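Protocol step 4 of 6.
Sequence for Cell division protein DivIB (Lactobacillus kalixensis DSM 16043) entered exactly as in the expression construct, tag removed. Do not edit the line below.
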Amino acid sequence: MRQLPKKKVTKIDPRKELSPYLNHQINQNKTRKKEAKKKVSASLSMLHLERRKSLLKGAGSIIGVSLLAIIGLGYYISPLANVSSVQVKGATDIPAEIVVKNSGIKASDRVLDYKFHQKTISNELAKKYPEVKNVSVDISHLNRVVLNVHEHSTIAYVREGKVYRKILSDGNIGRRKLRWSEIDQSKPLFIGYNQETSFKDDLKLFDSLPADFRDQVKVLSGSTKRKSQIILVMKDGNLVVGNLSTFKEKIKYYNEIRAKAGKNSLIDLEVGAFSRPLTASEKKAYGIS
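Step 5 output, C-alpha cells:
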C-alpha cells in the first residue's frame, strides 16, 4: 500500500500578525488621549479667560458705581446742589411769585430734595389753590428748579358781589377773585346764587347738557321762583325756563321752538313747551337788550 506524502505545516505567530493592528489601535488611542487632553486644556483656558473677563467686568461695574456715588455725594454736599433759582411754567391763573412763595422752596435747600418730594409740593399747592390740578418738578442746569403747574380748565364763572370766581372742571370754585376785565366773557356766568344747594344743582345739570347747547348759554340765574326752577339767558337774547328734573329731557325741543320764536323770546320748558315775547320788565331784570 502506497503512503501519501506528508503536507508541510506553516507555523504562524498570532502576535506578529496582530501587531500592526494592535499598534494602530494603540496609536489611535494615544492620539485620542492627546486630543482629549488638548480639548480639556483648551476648555480650561477658555474657562479661566471667561472667569477673568467676568471678574474684570464685575470690578469695572463696582468701580463705576463707586465713582458715580462719590461724584453724586460730592455734588449733593457742594454748594452746586443748592437751589439757585425757581422757574414756574403753565400757571395762568396764579401769579408765578405766589406759586414760588407757597411751594416752600428755599435757596438754602438741595434741589434733589424737591425732585424726590414733588408730590408733597403738588399736594400743598393744590390744597391752597383749587385751580391747581397737580405740579411736577424738574431740575435744569444742575441747580435750577422748574415747577410745571397743571391747572383745571374753567367751564364758567360765578359772580360774588362785584367780583367773579372761576368754576373749575372738577366742580370746585377757584380761590382768586377776578374783575370783569379779567374773565373770559365767552364763558357762562352764574349770577344771583345765594344758596349753595341751588348753585350745585344748577351746575350739575348744566354740566350734563349737550356741549352745543352749553356754548349758547350766557347767564344762569339763581333768582328763581321755585327751587326746582332753572333760568338761562342765551347769547341770542332768548330766555329759557325749565324744571331741574325734566330740563335735560326737554332740551331736544329747544332749537325747533327757537326757530319759530325769534329773538327776545321766553322759551318755557317747565310745563309743556312753548314760547312768547319777553316783556320789558323781564328784559331789564335779566339784562337783555
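Step 6, annotate. The mean pLDDT is 83.
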